[in-house]
Specification:
The protein folds into four domains: about 220 residues, Neuraminidase, CATH 2.120.10.30; about 80 residues, no CATH class; about 90 residues, Immunoglobulin-like (Sandwich); about 100 residues, Immunoglobulin-like (Sandwich), CATH 2.60.40. The protein has six helices and 50 strands.
């Protein structure tokens, strides 16, 4: 395998990854570095959620993609070689963007090749049985065969940066075949237990080995000296089961199982599936085409810094110009000192802002289905933004994926229901999501009150103050006045809009005056409307009504009159024909002549009878002195 040393001053972040399946067991593949959000070649776009136009930027993923795009500027193509159980050599290209698997050739070795390696000249070698075979990189024809006396098949093969080859898999020892003498096995290190599962990859200044133990497969990180001799090693953790190969390619470390090629992050050690084997021909070994090519990649804020190779940016970097800027990535082939500088445009869009209504309330009549007009909520959510597209979804996953939008007229299946809102800045992939509740509240019950009749004096214009609040008890019924508020209005429009309420004493001057009612649930804002009529009549003296008057007199100043109407109806009573009351009894009256008025509340017809309250003296003194000389009934 070929060595790739990338001197990155860079940063990584995580992405939800896919699981690898091995022998019927699911191995959880942890989040790994997210590819930079590329808009087009050398243009990357980001979404800033706090609206200031500044954001931490992962320069490593950008540099890896730029390096992958421009490796051919140095005469190299990106790719990972795989060998299969069916003795094929495959090439995986476009690894980080759109992986494609292509068969290169068919190996003709007597035994199945378990691993493949490539040196920095592009020469390919496979291990098959107890042999290592150099093959033609286009036809797989054998070009040179090396035979070794080993206990079992060689299953692991790699190159370091100095053309030295490493082999193992048949014992706990790893052997080196020094450059120029691939016939001689030189012990490199004995790990005392287990054996190589696949490859000895130089990645940075360390060697990485997939090592098989009784408990599974582990990843060793081996420290080596300048001559690539073993110094020490640590166990980083478990690899997915049946990892038979490792490869490094343009800034990433990869592992291979019979069914998957996956990417390995080292700090922390996490995995992400890159491509799945759908052929049924198991994958074994792997080798990066550029493992032996040593690149130095750095990023600079200005072209002057890039040319002078000063002030390289740190891996975790926040743009210094709000909204984004141009940075410069330099790629240097350490072997040839060839340098390429690529300008990279970073665009930082700001996520849409929003006002979360928290809860949308739909007022409903139990006889009708609850239909929510979601589009009606959009202006309040968006405010003054005109460059944002809004959609509504039934699940958070749908909102994040921008699929299955809800119709504008939405009928929820639960009450309350959660609706997920997605807002996208037009022309970008910058979006934000949030959730809100939709719930229904029953409309208040408006108990229909009766009309009001007002009587005014005959032959004068109608002019009356009507106590319309007398309708409140009938309108509310048994609904709590602390929860429900009733107001009266001149028009239905005013009642619906809850504007221009009428005073409790309402002045009327027409014979027929409609009054519109609004009853509102103070907590939910749901309301119902209705109306009643104020009918104003001028009095008529033609009431043909039989009524009787009982006088309770024979006192000087505490007499009473009681009126009884023979016919059923709704009447009111007065002693002066002006001030009427529902009370048909008058008390505390002095003696005298009284006119009793009875008025029909519905048609203002008036009947009248005269009543005299009498009194007699309790004594008299017939002595002709001019005082109390005679006795008679007063007013008789």
């Amino acid at each position: 395998m070929r060595y790739l040393c990338l001197m990155f001053i860079l940063f990584s972040f995580n992405l939800t990854a896919q699981p690898l399946t091995d022998a019927g067991n699911v191995v959880e593949i942890n989040p790994a570095k997210t590819p930079a959000p590329r808009l087009s070649d050398n243009v990357f776009t980001y979404c800033d959620t706090n609206a200031d136009g500044f954001i931490p930027i992962d320069l490593q993923s950008i540099s890896n993609l730029v390096l992958s795009d421009h490796a051919d500027d140095f005469g190299y193509d990106e790719g990972i070689y795989l060998c299969t159980a069916g003795s094929k050599v495959l090439l995986v290209s476009n690894i980080e963007t759109n992986p494609q698997v292509t068969q290169i050739c068919q190996v003709g070795t007597p035994s199945t090749p378990f691993d493949i390696a490539a040196n920095q000249d592009g020469d390919l070698y496979v291990c098959a049985g107890d042999q290592i075979v150099k093959i033609n990189s286009a036809t797989c024809a054998s070009q040179q065969v090396y035979n070794y006396s080993v206990a079992s098949a060689i299953n692991s093969l790699s190159f370091d940066r100095n053309y030295n080859m490493y082999m193992g898999g048949f014992s706990s020892s790893v052997y080196r075949l020094n450059s120029g003498d691939y016939n001689t096995m030189v012990p490199w290190h004995d790990f005392n237990q287990g054996m190589a599962a696949g490859d000895f990859v130089m990645y940075g200044d360390k060697m990485y080995i997939a090592w098989r133990t009784s408990g599974g497969c582990e990843l060793f990180e081996v420290t080596v000296d300048a001559a690539n001799n073993y110094v020490s090693h640590i166990v980083l953790g478990d690899l997915p089961g049946q990892t038979f190969g490792l490869a490094s390619e343009l800034g990433y470390l990869y592992g291979v199982t019979p069914g998957n090629l996956y990417r390995i992050n080292l700090n922390p050690m996490t995995f992400q599936n890159i491509v799945t084997n759908g052929s049924g021909d198991s994958w074994y070994g792997a080798a990066g085409k550029n493992e032996a090519v040593k690149f130095e990649v750095q990023t600079f804020e200005s072209i002057a810094d890039a040319q002078a190779n000063v002030n390289a940016l740190p891996s975790f970097w926040i743009n210094t110009v709000s909204g984004g800027q141009t940075v410069y990535v330099t790629i240097r082939n350490v072997i040839t000192n060839q340098i390429v500088t690529i300008p990279v445009e970073l665009i930082v869009n700001t996520a849409p802002s929003y006002t979360n209504p928290q809860t949308l309330t739909q007022c409903y009549d139990s006889a009708q289905p609850s239909i929510f007009d979601l589009a009606a909520a959009s202006p309040g959510i968006l405010g003054s933004q005109t460059d944002v597209t809004i959609s509504y979804h039934g699940t958070e996953a749908d909102a994040l994926a921008s699929i299955n939008p809800l119709p504008n007229l939405y009928v929820p299946t639960t009450d309350p229901a959660t609706v997920y809102v997605r807002l996208v800045k037009n022309g970008t992939s910058c979006f934000t999501t949030f959730s809100m509740l939709v719930r229904t509240v029953a409309l208040p019950v408006l108990n229909q009150p009766g009309d009001i009749t007002v009587c005014s004096a005959a032959n004068v214009p109608i002019d009356a103050l009507v106590p319309i609040n007398q309708q409140l008890p009938q309108i509310l019924g048994n609904q709590d006045s602390a929860t429900y508020q009733v107001s009266f209005h001149q028009s239905l429009t005013d009642a619906v809009s809850s504007v221009n309420p009428l005073p409790p004493l309402y002045h009327v001057s027409a014979s027929v005056t409609p009054v519109f009612i609004r009853i509102e649930n103070i907590q939910s804002g749901c309301f119902s409307t209705g109306s009643f009529t104020i009918n104003a009549f001028q009095e008529t003296q033609n009431l043909s009504l039989q009524f009787s008057v009982d006088a309770h007199d024979w006192t000087d100043g505490n007499n009473a009159i009681s009126v009884s109407v023979d016919e059923s109806g709704d009447y009111e009573y007065s002693l002066d024909g002006v001030n009427y009351s529902d009370d048909h009894e008058f008390s505390g009256l002095p003696i005298g002549v009284y006119s009793i008025y009875v008025r029909d509340k519905h048609n203002c017809g008036v009947g009248m009878k005269e009543v005299i309250l009498l009194m007699y003296p309790k004594f008299f003194t017939p002595n002709r002195d001019g005082f109390h000389d005679f006795w008679n009934v007063k007013l008789a």
